Amino acid sequence: MPEKILEEFSAVAGNPLEYVRELKDRGRRIVGFFCSYTPEEIIVAAGIHPLRLFGAAAGTAHAEAHLQSYSCSVVRKALEDALTGRLDMLDGTVFPHTCDSMQRLSDIWRLNTEFPFFADIVLPVTLSRESSFRYLVDILRTFRTEIEKGLSVRIDDNDLRRSCALYNDIRSALRDLSDMRAERPAILSGREYATVLKAAMIMDREDFRERLLDLLWRLPRSREETRDRGGPRILLSGGLCDQPDLFGMFDGAGVAIVGDDLCTGLRYADGAINLTGDPVEALAQRYVSRATCPAKHSSITARAEHLTMLARSRRAAGVIFILLKFCEPHAFDYPYLREALEKEGMATLLLELEDRLPPQGQVATRLETFRHLLMRRMPTASTEVRETS
Questions:
Q1: Which stretches of the chain are assigned E, i.e. beta strand?
Q2: What confidence tens digit (pLDDT) does each residue in 75-88 have?
């Protein structure tokens, strides 16, 4: 039965720091990271466990002494975890430079913590030029060298290819799981799907691959009688969303989440790595060809083209934007994406969140209103519903 696997994923997603402390007690070294542009494959090839840092602190008093008030909750909570010792199991941290707040967090982290290893990865912003690709390859080679020197390891090309193959399997399986839900949304609840995605960035990757493939095999067989309730088909877009409770609210609102463009969702799983030739160049090529986030640029219309194509392919009636408050890259992107979707006849809803969800009743009411709007609006109508909390 898939329930046992899903319970394991839920336990990991619910308490990631406890999970990695157990890994640490078994002799594993742990490196934290913040973004899907982190080359996890290089970390795994070094025999080190990569942990995505979401921030778990209940308060941020220590962090706020170092940060501006407009820093996002991910930055504030992660720094609080570091300053108060909650991340003392880490052997190091990796900072891809994707936004101003993350770049400044990198400096504050380096000056105020004592982790053995620290690395900045300054990836190119423009990904469509040959010069950008060559620069990206150089950055990845430098990071590989920094890992080897900083943590006294040796990364063989064959080890890196095996790591790339592992991530190809994981990403392919996550895409298959998303495709399965697009066809039969009720086969896996939104909350269950969210815990699978979060566990993918926390668990030992070999263990995760094994359990995920098992889940993919068992789900259609154990839930073959599942019947969808027929609610409007919705796509999600935005940045980091690690709150299964929010997905539970979607389940309760009678909408079917059939796909996403989240950095903790399908963008994390997008693209495959060529396992022949130079593995570092193959890694760089995936970054160039995968769906971009607002912090990267391949063309002035690439993000809208990707989102509208995804919405059409998943037969979505509307898009819900999930944005963290003070996340400037996604906030700047939002008006242009909304306009592109409205031209395609799709309604949009903006949910702007901080470290805690708004009151459940408030979100439920807005989702219910959005659902009714989608059910009665004409295909050519254009509507936006906006969160102001």
A1: 30-33, 49-52, 92-96, 117-121, 233-238, 256-261, 318-324, 347-353, 384-386
A2: 999 999 999 999 99
